[in-house]
Design a protein that fits this description.
Helix content: 40-55%
Oligomer: single chain
Strand content: 15-25%
Number of helices: 5
Structural class: alpha/beta
CATH architecture of the largest domain: 3-Layer(aba) Sandwich
Distance between the termini: 63 Å
Number of domains: 2
Largest sheet: 5 strands, mixed
Strand order of the largest sheet: 5-4-3-6-7
């Protein structure tokens, strides 16, 4: 005896539903775990090597910027203020200049010294972070070294500060 057509379809539908549920669960699990921040070592403007993993245990604000970027220059004094205010609580701001040459960066740093290290970036470093196609672009990295937020363009500084404060050790979550 042959099974009715709708019964023959049922196992296929069940298999498809199970596969969809499995895929949804896998992607939901992957989305809940933030990606690790790619490690790098670059010299700061004074020549001191800066290795990202040395900041493990701190919240890192990794800011890609340039001297010719007006929104970048607006953010820098606030980032310096945060470094001074929250550095002892576990914040480390790190500026990555995407300028082609060091001279304008050195000149800006002499005129307006930031309270955090500046390093020179390039296309290879930007590529490690999925490509930096506009400035400013900032990555917020938690104490375990995971990228928990990416900000493209001029950031909502109040919102960014609130996110930083929520990640600092001892913060009420």
């Amino acid at each position: 005896m042959k099974a009715p057509a709708h019964f023959a379809f049922a196992p296929c539908a069940l298999l498809a539903a199970a596969l969809l549920a499995l895929a949804a669960g896998a992607s939901a699990g992957a989305a809940s775990e933030p990606p690790a921040a790619p490690d790098f070592t670059r010299a700061d403007l004074a020549g001191t090597p800066i290795k990202l993993t040395e900041f493990r245990g701190k919240v890192v604000l990794l800011n890609f910027w340039a001297t010719w970027c007006a929104p970048c220059l607006i953010e820098m004094p606030r980032f310096s203020q945060w470094q001074r205010a929250y550095g002892t609580r576990g914040l480390q701001v790190l500026g990555v200049s995407m300028d082609d040459a060091r001279e304008p960066v050195l000149r800006l740093a002499r005129q307006h010294p930031p309270a955090y290290p500046l390093i020179m970036g390039d296309a290879a470093l930007a590529k490690l972070y999925g490509g930096v196609y506009g400035l400013p672009t900032s990555f917020l990295i938690d104490t375990q070294g995971r990228i928990v937020a990416r900000y493209r363009g001029e950031a909502d500084l109040k919102g960014l500060e609130a996110k930083i404060l929520s990640l600092l050790p001892g913060a009420d979550r």
